[in-house]
Amino acid sequence: MKLAVVLFALVTLSECLLKIPLTKGKSARQTLEEKGLYEEYKRKYRYNPRAKFNTKAGGAMVPMIFYPESTYYGVIAIGTPPQSFKVLFDTGSADLWVPSVHCSSSQACYNHARFNTTASSTFQPSSETFSIQYVTGYMTGDVGYDTIIIGDLYVTHQIFGLSLVEDAFLDSLPWDGILGLAFPNQQSINGGTPVFDNIWKQGKIPQDLFSIYLSSSVDGSMLILGGTDPSYFTGSIQWIPISQPTGYWQINVDSITINGNTVACAAGCQAVVDSGTTEILGPTRDVNNINGWVGAYSEQGIVSCSNIKRMPEITFNINGFGFNLPASTYVLPYGSSCTTGFGTWDNDQWILGEVFMRQFYTVFNRDQNWVGLAQAKKSPESD
After folding, report:
1. Count of Cβ atoms closer than 10 Å to residue 36 Cβ
2. Predicted TM-score of the model (pTM)
3. Of the candidates 297, 244, 239, 233, which has an alpha carbon nearest to the alpha carbon of residue 269?
4. In sequence order, what E strands does 274-369 have?
5. Which positions are catalytic?
6. What confidence tens digit (pLDDT) does each residue in 150-194 have?
7. Where are the alpha helices (DSSP H) in the chain?
8. Domains in the chain and their CATH numbers?
9. Which of 60, 122, 154, 307 is a good FRET partner for 322, with 20 to 30 A between their CA atoms?
């Protein structure tokens, strides 16, 4: 209940916009490294983002992967009286799920907030179940309906998942569950309507869009429902149409260049803008080429931290606009060294995760099926 009070105190309403503060918490990787368990978990729970973007069979399986780096989360509440949860607001998935009070399969259940259905007078049970697919197994749970509270906004009769069995790796994550912000599609739990769609259908916000500002500081990041806030960006918003009706925020990228030289995506490529992925992910050959151009000296993209000021900008050319990533934004600390924020996966598609979104204030426009990008204002930590 204390978290709910803090949430309601922090939320700011400005010109009918609902602002939900996001916290940059400690990543699963940091937590596991402190316990000496990261290498063990990395071997056991292979980071496989492809699973997240695969269509699941029968509409009953929710893609789920080990998120070793993802850190941003906000607070919502569920039920009457409200029970508070920290959730990852994920533009790469469409569902809401939190742990159930009956979840007892691993320490992951006990170390996170759990929803007690009997304590909510507005909870409506369902005979349906859902599963979340891991590389190594499944999360299973029940499906129910209840009121979701985001700030002072109430979303009634919202379908959501209640996990009963959770794998051990979830114990290291800073958030309790996930609130998906992708389009409703065959991946939604039992064909249910996602939270944001119900927010719009129930007339809770002035515009059918939301925007995200990610700060490099612990505090200062924001999810804004119903509009945009110029205090978080400079210049104008460049609008990019959704390229394919995949259910994700997918756009066309014309090319990726360094100093005018095409280094990746030479013939154009598809990219998904995903707040639930930390890195910028791309095909192995392209990412290795980028890492070579910026001076990385290993397949893991390791670079000298002292060279950051001399490393080139990387430009994503999208819809006729150039979006520049300076080295200070695409180089990340890695133990006692540094690494580029580019990862590889077995797919021709690109994923533009937190590394990209920290540089660009991002608008997700459901009304027009557009993604908007504008230069994000620097957080105090980066000045």
Report:
1. 8
2. 0.88
3. 244
4. 280-283, 302-303, 314-318, 321-325, 331-334, 337-340, 342-345, 350-352, 360-365
5. 90, 274
6. 998 999 999 999 998 877 667 777 889 889 999 987 556 767 899
7. 2-10, 28-35, 38-44, 49-52, 107-110, 195-201, 284-294, 327-330, 354-357
8. 2-213 (2.40.70.10), 233-377 (2.40.70.10)
9. 307
